[in-house]
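Q: Given only this backbone (391 positions), what sequence would you predict?
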């Protein structure tokens, strides 16, 4: 057995006690320390406000920066914004961009396997926090598959000063602000420890809760799930089934009303040219995926159905499937045709866009009626299966 493998074997099942102490003390001080402080000293308005501002900044540093910009390259921006996101992300104390992105890219490419650092197949607790406090899960802290990021000036700087940036930005600056209004300890507890506990566990919930509870609208075979609930405290990262299916899309909450402030800010900044090259999955591809995912579940049901059920529904299901494939073909052809016309950049573009939206709506409505038929068929089949098992 080579040396590296031997160390890895020895480490399996052991714990990183420094990490355990840190990840225990932070929430204990954050929750109980702040609670005791409030009990004796009360609350002043500056403290919850500072907590929210720093929560927002460090949270966005992770979602907009570490995750969508650096790990997935879902959009581009200038180096000034990269530096800003690097500083804010460091304040979340979730490791350097290189290590975070290395783990995260492996999480996507090797999801649900032994190589996935926070694989849900090893349990909720492991995916949430266990993987951070256990030794031997990340091959001795090796950083892999992030060559493309190493040359960025913000990342080079962070590699040398990560911890200093995190401590100054996340603890010293709030404390200094606290001095101004006469409560440095209050500021440290609220904006430092309590804020960090929230940021940590919100991120951890994406790896645990979003691989456990929620809908699998886009890929039934992935453990990742869409949870609007988790999105509310992770700046839009809860739509995890969609994200695992289309990881390079700058949006996680793909519907316009889905709570995803990271998406709104990235899009908003693109109007003034600060962000650009936003990657986005085409609407018909998303619709196709959604329907194919349903069809997959329907055809899986036939595998365990009685001959009677197959006789009743299989033919109809195949016809619906063919119809939907034909519609997708027409839709994608239509998109190509319009893209070609729009690329000419004439004064008719506004009119063309209007027509394109109307055409899309038409296809969506037709596909939606197929989707409802498929769902109804699945419901009927489930009911009949249940009834025949009771007889
Ligand atoms: Zn995931
Ligand atoms: Zn991701």
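A: Predicted residues:
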């Amino acid at each position: 057995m080579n040396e590296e493998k031997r160390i890895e074997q020895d480490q399996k099942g052991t714990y990183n006690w420094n990490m355990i102490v840190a990840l225990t003390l932070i929430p204990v001080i954050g929750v109980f320390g702040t609670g005791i402080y409030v009990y004796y000293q009360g609350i002043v308005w500056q403290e919850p406000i500072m907590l929210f501002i720093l929560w927002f900044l460090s949270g966005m540093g992770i979602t907009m920066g570490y995750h969508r910009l650096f790990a997935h390259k879902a959009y581009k921006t200038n180096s000034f914004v990269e530096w800003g996101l690097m500083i804010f992300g460091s304040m979340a104390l979730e490791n350097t961009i290189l290590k975070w992105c290395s783990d995260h890219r492996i999480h996507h490419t090797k999801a649900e396997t032994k190589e996935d650092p926070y694989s849900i197949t090893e349990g909720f607790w492991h995916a949430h926090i266990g993987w951070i406090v256990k030794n031997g899960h990340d091959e001795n802290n090796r950083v892999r598959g992030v060559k493309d990021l190493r040359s960025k000036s913000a990342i080079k700087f962070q590699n040398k000063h990560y911890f200093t940036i995190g401590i100054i930005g996340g603890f010293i600056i709030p404390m200094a602000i606290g001095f101004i209004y006469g409560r440095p300890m209050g500021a440290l507890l609220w904006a430092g420890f309590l804020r960090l506990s929230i940021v940590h566990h919100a991120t951890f919930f994406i790896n645990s809760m979003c691989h456990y509870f929620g809908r699998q609208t886009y890929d039934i075979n992935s453990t990742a799930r869409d949870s609007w609930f988790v999105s509310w405290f992770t700046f839009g990262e809860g739509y995890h089934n969609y994200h695992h299916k289309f990881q390079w899309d700058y949006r996680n909450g793909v519907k316009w009303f889905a709570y995803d402030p990271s998406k709104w800010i990235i899009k908003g900044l693109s109007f003034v040219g600060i962000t650009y090259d936003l990657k986005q999955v085409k609407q018909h591809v998303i619709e196709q995926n959604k329907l194919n995912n349903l069809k997959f579940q329907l055809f899986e049901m036939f595998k365990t159905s009685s001959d009677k059920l197959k006789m009743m529904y299989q033919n109809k299901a195949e016809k619906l499937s063919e119809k939907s494939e034909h519609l997708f073909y027409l839709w994608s052809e239509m998109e190509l045709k319009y893209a070609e016309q729009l690329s000419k950049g004439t004064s008719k573009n506004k009119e063309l866009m209007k027509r394109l939206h109307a055409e899309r709506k038409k296809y969506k409505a037709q596909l939606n009626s197929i989707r409802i038929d498929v769902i109804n068929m699945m419901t009927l089949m489930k009911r009949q299966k249940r009834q025949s098992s009771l007889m």
